[in-house]
Amino acid sequence: MEKILNRTLHIAKSSKKDEFYTQLPDIENELQHYKEHFKNKVVFCNSDDPRNSNFFKYFAYNFENLGLKKIITIGYKNQEKNLFFQGESEKAVFLEYHSSIHDKKITNAEEMGIKNCTGNGDFRSKESIELLKKSDIVVTNPPFSLFREYVDQLVKYEKKFLIIGNINAITYKEIFKLIKENKVWLGINMGRGISGFIVPEDYKLFGTETRIDKNGNRIVATNNCLWLTNLDTLRRHEDIVLTKKYYGNERAYPKFDNYDAINVNKTQDIPMDYDGVIGVPITFLHKYNPEQFELIKFRKGNDEKDLSINGQCTYFRILIKNKRRSIF
Ligand SMILES: C[S@@+](CC[C@H](N)C(=O)[O-])C[C@H]1O[C@@H](n2cnc3c(N)ncnc32)[C@H](O)[C@@H]1O
Questions:
Q1: Does the beta carbon of 18 sit less than 6 angstroms from any atom of ligand 1?
Q2: Residue ID of nearest Cα to ligand 1 atom 18
Q3: Where do the CATH 3.40.50 domains begin and end in the chain?
């Protein structure tokens, strides 16, 4: 009995992490940088109940402004009108929102023509995949616990996407591989740039990172999320301005024991005059311009053990090389 109870608690705990809902201002803050990508496109939000998703709300509000062709949105299980209804019914709902709904200015979700799914709306289900195939760009905050699988599916179906994930996702080898191959990159906002998520009623709020907004929503500022995308942004074509020098300051840049590279603790300290490999923190990727730097390797030295300095492992490091090294 105790075992069953523990297991149930464990499932409840890990699934609760999936119930972080995105706020409209955070969606607006990010989406403003991608307007040109959406003209005449079908957008798919595939972990979003049309009756309560702020992603759907954003795209419906901006339907004309973005020049969208269609929005498809599908929830997971039946979340009814309550964000945190845990689904007594397994059946989800979906909606295909197009210009004739928009032109009639229908705002009531039911009147828009929501349909019942035959299944629970799992993004891996046949039904959801058929909707994915009809779409051009996927935009959502997917379930955190299934992030690898979720991205894998987007890549498999060659979809454009803009999604929220945990910063740790960069350290998953499958995700880092995509970043290294320049198939995926970080969006504009991350960490404090995402103001917080709406959490369920029973989620304990403590500390300064939590608040209740004017609509009574319980908000947690996690400071550990980012946007991941394969839509081009201006940011990734801007060089990081380098002001530091290696030669003359060698002691500030110790070498790793198990890789011929120097360590840098902050992106702004990358030296402009160093020709070899440099280990930088993962937050470097937020400013990464593939025309300026090359990504060499992640986390491990030549011996495939974690990078270390004098026997001590540093934080995760990404090994990079400056393509435009300059000596003044
Ligand atoms: C992090 S929440 C974000 C919800 C919504 N996309 C948003 O941004 O407000 C992830 C959502 O994915 C749903 N979910 C969990 N497992 C899923 C699955 N296998 N397929 C589709 N959605 C799933 C959860 O119920 C939850 O609503």
A1: yes
A2: 122
A3: 15-234
Quote the DSSP letter at residue 241.
P
What DSSP assignment string belongs to 33-49? T-GGG-TT-EEEETT--
CB of 22 closer than 6 angstroms to any ligand 1 atom: yes
Say how many Å lie between the CA of residue 131 and the centre of ligand 1.
16
CA 77 to centroid of ligand 1, rounded, Å: 10
Q: Which amino acid is at 156?
A: K
Q: Is residue 19 in contact with ligand 1, taking CB distance under 6 Å?
A: yes
Residue 189 pLDDT class (50, 70, 90 cuts): very high
Beta-bridge mates of residue 264: none
- pLDDT tens-digit series, residues 77-119: 876 655 555 545 688 999 999 999 999 998 887 889 999 999 9
Report yes or no: 20 and 141 within 8 Å, Cβ to Cβ. yes
Residue 15 CA, closest ligand 1 atom number:
15
Q: Which of 71, 93, 218, 226 is nearest to 147 (CA)?
A: 226
C-beta 96 within 6 A of ligand 1: no
Longest dimension (CA), the chain: 71
pLDDT band of residue 242 (cuts 50, 70, 90) is very high
Domain 15-234 -> CATH class: alpha beta
